[in-house]
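Example 3.2
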Amino acid sequence: MLAETICSAVSAAGLGIAAITAYRKRFLTAARMAAYALVPLGLVMTGAVEWIAGTAFSPVAWAGFGVLGVAWLLFLSTRAVERRRGGRKETTGDAGTRAVAPGASAPSRAVTAKPRAAQAGRGSQAGQGSQAAGDDFSDIEAILKKHGI
């Protein structure tokens, strides 16, 4: 009963201040003040104030708020870890397999095949990896030689 009276008084005072502001030809500010002033009155009329008062003294409600807080912390911590990883998501299964569209061009298929070839070549064919790296830079070396660098 006391909360409803206080909310009604706050709404009446806010509407009075909004009326004075409108009298001073500041209609946008007056409309915004009236909107804020009507919120407590609306809460009283919908019964939300009674619900809040009943919830404030309920141990089950506080336990529910605690569970929501834990869920919120878990969500934020997983987002922080995801950002720290650089946006990489967890992978399940074989990390080297990537999906390629059925009508994909040859370069896109080669890009998806490189990680698997690199994983297979790490074991016994380490010498071929350095030779392949030399082939990749041969065109760059030719350009640099052409310009005398």
